[in-house]
Structures are given as C-alpha cells and as structure tokens.
C-alpha cells in the first residue's frame, strides 16, 4: 500500500515538473519570437533608411539586396537569404509603426503574409490569424484555398473592404456559409467516385481540418443523427453547434447534384430541430446541403417558399483556381465604383 501511494506521488511529481517545463518553454518561445520579429522589423527599417539617403533601392532582384544577403550570411550565418532580407524590408514598409505589429504572430506567420501581394487579402489573413489563432500551417492552407476570395464573392464592395479591415465577423447566418467549400485535405482523387458514406467517413477522420474549413465557432455534435417520424428513421449526416450564433447547424452530404427532394428533406430536419432539439436561448437551426454540383435555377425555385435558414453549397475536392476567383473579386470592387 505504501508503495502504491509512493508511486502515485511520484507520478504527480513527474506531471507537475512536466507542466513547469512546458510552460517555461512556451514563455521562452514567445519571448524569442517577440525579439526576432522586432529585430527583423529594425533590419527592414535600416534598409529603408539607407535607401532614403539616395542609395540603390532594395527591390527584389536588385544588386544591393544580393550584396546585402551575401555579406550578412558571411558575417552572421543562416537566415539572411535574398528573399528573407527582402521580406524584412517589406515588413517595415507594410508596418512602418511597430505598434501595429502583433506579438502574437511569429516571423513564420509574417513571412507567409508578406508574400500575399494584394493588400486587402493580406490584411484579412492577418486579422484571421489573430482572431482564430491559426498556426502557420493553417494560414498556408487557408491562403492556398483562396478563403478571402471565396468569402468576398458573396459581398459587395463595402463588404469586401470591411472583410479586409476587420476579418470575417460572424453576426448573421449569411456570414457563416461559403460557396464553395474546399475539401482537398480529404485526399480524394478528382476522378474517384466515392459514396456519401465514404465522404462522411473521410470528413470524420479529418474533423479538425473540416472544422477549420467551416470557420470560427463550430463545435461537433454528432454524425448520423437519427430522427424518427411516423415510425420511419431519418439520419442527418453531420450535426454541429455554432457557439457565436447559438444554433444547431445541420449538414447533409450529396455526391451528385442536389435536387428538390434533398432540399425538402433538409427543411423537414430543420423543422424537427426547431420543435424537438432547440433549447432555451437557442436560435433557429441552419441547414447546409453540401453537394458536388447544383443547378442554381433549381435551387432558387426549390428554396423560394422555405422560411427556414437553408443553404446549398458546392464542395470541391481540389484547390480552386485562385486567379479566376481574384478576377471575380476585382470585378466586384470595380463594378461597385461605377
């Protein structure tokens, strides 16, 4: 008995030491990160000040940048590639006041952000990194999947500018829904004909990444949620709860084009959740049908008389053509000016 008690105390000791080490390492990393970000900002400032004295501009590919990179590497070792030195200069140009630099983002975050040439898009991703605490890997994935453009396509010029300035603010149902959703992380080949069960299983296996694609505020509730009506069982593929909007979000998966029966079935699910599952303080549930394809006219007419919050969005199993999406956003900004 004494030995068992001693063993438990020893495990508690090991655990407490581990917590101390983990905390100290996080604090050390945070402090090192702040010093590194501040140092690189200062290096960028020095380069710009050198330029302002009438010397050569340190544009990418310039001889000054090449010489500076070579000499810094010789004296101080790695970390001063031509592209990295250029990013330090761009860092200062983009944030001329150090107070606008967030200590919560690492230099690796800023390295990714500074490679985004569009100022509006770059501002959006920086805000989202801070609000949703994205890792560098998550930031790269969202940038590569053209998240800014996908959200911007549902807005007018004023909305796009607000998106860039404030990030994605979830205040109403429309702010929640994307079209398309990009599920390239599932690793399903474009030419592979998977079943709805396989698609659902792949999403469950990659739930963390799917939650990232859905956006801020989603928590997973259930898969294949059973609804029994008139002795017959129905199953909602995926059920989530949105912490910000305080409502259930029901998702049905369709591997083919959506039809009016799919929309009618989701409408029934929403009515059931309103009557049977909604708790005090909950708002009306939201339904999203994720389909491989959809006919916009059919969807428009099928949704015409439905009062529930029901949306039909496409999903893609590969990254979208970002240039095409960028061009569509440019048209939104341009046509809104006329």
Nutshell version of this structure?
This protein has 338 residues and is of the alpha/beta class. The protein has 13 helices and 6 strands.
Describe this structure in words.
This protein is of the alpha/beta class. Helix content is 54%, strand content 15%. It has 13 helices and six strands. It has helices at 2-52, 63-76, 82-94, 107-113, 119-132, 136-144, 147-152, 157-166, 196-205, 207-214, 260-277, 296-303, 322-335, and strands spanning 181-182, 218-229, 232-242, 247-257, 286-293, 309-316. It has a six-stranded mixed β-sheet with strand order 1-6-5-4-3-2, with helices on both faces. It is globular and about 80 Å long. 27% of the residues are buried.
Keywords:
13 helices, 54% helix, alpha/beta, 3 domains, 6-stranded mixed sheet
Task: Return the CATH topology of the largest domain.
Answer: Trna Endonuclease, Chain: A, domain 1
> Could you tell me the mean pLDDT?
89
Q: Strand fraction band?
A: 15-25%
Number of domains: 3
Give helix and strand order, one letter per element, not per position: HHHHHHHHEHHEEEHEHEH
With strands numbered from the N-terminus, the spatial order across the biggest sheet is 1-6-5-4-3-2
SS-derived structural category: alpha/beta
Helix content: 40-55%
Which class of the largest domain in CATH terms?
Answer: Alpha Beta
Tell me about the biggest sheet?
6 strands, mixed
In CATH, the architecture of the largest domain is 3-Layer(aba) Sandwich
